[in-house]
Amino acid sequence: MKYFSLDNNLKQVKSFIPNSIQKTSAPGTHKKGRSTCESTEILSQFLDKSLDKSPRKDNIRCTLIRRIIKLIRSVNKCKIKISLNPKSLKLLKIISANIDELSKLVNKKNLPYIENKTNKKYKSYNDSYCRIFFSNNVIRELYFVYIDYIFTSRTFEERCKDLNIYCCKDKRIRSSRCTKKWEKLKNILLKEPMEHFGV
Fold first, then answer.
1. Confidence at residue 82, expressed as pLDDT on a 0 to 100 scale
2. SS3 of 199, please?
């Protein structure tokens, strides 16, 4: 099977990743302290679906991974439930071109114990599992494009549902302040594979 050209498309992916994110340290040399404080500060401005407390980044990460896995499986089964636009078509192109490799990665037996009750090596979508997950070049590219899709092609309501979070208690408010908060969150999520897992 002919695989999707990562070299050419990673250049496209970098076009919407801020320079400050691209210029990260080499694996094993990055510092998490400052990034952790920044993430905590930004997440404190949001509310989880209960609207009573701030969301945890690992919960958002888990939600994103599960949605990516679901999308890959949908493409594999030819049961696509996604609105078509340039960003979603890019997602489908990446998945379709690498469907064999991606299907193996999201096979139920390779997922954490929480999904199959058999994989005791990874009991949840914890750091150990995510480090392996994001070490795959295709998954990493797919993640970047998926984040861009959520923040540029989805409506305000759809984005909240996708991530299970809200920027304010009144779900109908869409102020410039909200827009700035979402933009900061997008940058944090784009940094995730590189800064948190060093991949």
1. 80
2. coil
Domain spans of the chain? 49-196
Q: b/e for 158-180, b at 16 or more Cβ within 10 A?
A: ebbebbebbbbeeeeeeeeebee
Cα(170)–Cα(89) distance, integer angstroms: 33
In whole angstroms, give the CA distance from residue 61 to residue 121: 19
> Could you give the C-alpha distances from 97 to 17, 107, 113, 173, 187, in angstroms and in order?
23, 17, 28, 40, 27
Q: Give me 67's structure tokens.
A: 């949605």
Q: What is the DSSP code string of 107-148?
A: -GGGS-HHHHS---S--SS-HHHHHHHHTSHHHHHHHHHHHH
Tokens coding 137: 């070049």
State the Cα angle at 156 between 154 and 162, rounded to 5°: 60
Q: Which of 107, 139, 138, 109 shows the shortest CA–CA distance to 122? A: 109
pLDDT class of 53 with cuts at 50, 70, 90: very high
pLDDT at 4 over 50: no
Asked if the model's pLDDT at residue 57 lies above 70, the reply is yes
